[in-house]
Amino acid sequence: MITRLLMSLATAVIVISLLWIEPLSPVVQPHPRFVKLDQSGNALSPWQGPWSCVLDTQRDLVWEVKTDSENIHDGYWTYSWYLSADETQQSQARGEANLGDCYFESSRCDTQDLINRARQTALCGLTHWRLPTSGELSSLLQNPARPGHVHIAQDFFPHMKHGDYWSSDHSQPLSGHYQRFKQGATAVNFHTGEQYPLPYRNAAFVLLVADLPTEFQSTRLKGVTH
């Protein structure tokens, strides 16, 4: 009886001691490639948030981060592929305007609309947002963390959808079911990991990118280690 009482007393002492110990701070290792950025473009620790962009340190690119807040970066909005002549550096615009679905436009919407809005609001302190090339977009593909999830680092890119995302690669010949539309742009599918050309008029998702300026790296990313 005395032995049981002493054991119970010892157990109580241990439990009370553990409750008084200050919990350790979370130890999160930096990602070997990605860094979270806040709305102003300042670097965050891996466990901090919210974040508006992701820096790809391997490619010196800054990626838009999608949201679920029904603003211009909402991950549910879709866009037809359309770019102005200035964007394509050609004599005329390319694509099909206003055939997507995004509620920040009075009529429907297209890729140029999203680019213009992201530049106007200086997302993460940058004003040169653009569509990524298919190579840049495909570089984000990775095996999903769990079966059925999108092929991307979801800890950094939440709200990505199982579907096609537009790249900047245009004037691609179409075949099969889409042959009657003649040309389109390349899309990358983050559900299957594939890429293929689609008609400009198709409504697809968009993940914008911006090149990392040298001055941006020196002033806002101090202390970031990889």
What are the SSEs and their pairings?
Layout: H1 2-20, E1 34-37, E2 53-56, E3 61-64, E4 82-83, H2 85-88, E5 94-95, H3 111-120, H4 134-138, E6 164-166, E7 172-173, E8 183-189, E9 195-199, E10 209-211, H5 214-220
Antiparallel strand pairs: 1-2, 2-3, 3-10, 4-5, 6-8, 7-8, 8-9
Computed structural class:
alpha+beta
Output the strand order for the largest sheet: 1-2-3-10
Proportion of beta-strand residues: 15-25%
Total strand segments: 10
Biggest β-sheet: count, sense, barrel? 4 strands, antiparallel
Number of helices, where a helix is a run of at least 4 consecutive DSSP H or I residues: 5
Question: Which range best describes the helical content: under 10%, 10-25%, 25-40%, 40-55%, 55-70% or over 70%?
Answer: 10-25%
End-to-end CA span? 59 Å
Instruction: List the helices and strands in order.
Output: HEEEEHEHHEEEEEH
Rg, Cα atoms, Å: 23 Å
The unreliable regions are 12-27
Domain Lcl C-terminal: 53-209
InterPro entries: Lcl_C
Pfam family, one: Lcl_C
Organism: Pseudoalteromonas rubra
Can you walk through the features of this model?
The structure is a single chain. This protein has 5 helices and 10 strands. It starts with a helix and ends in a 6-residue tail after the last helix. The chain has one domain (2-220). The chain is of the alpha+beta class and 226 residues long. 33% of the residues are buried. It has a 4-stranded antiparallel beta sheet with strand order 1-2-3-10, with no helix packed on it. Strands 6, 7, 8 and 9 form a 4-stranded antiparallel beta sheet that branches.
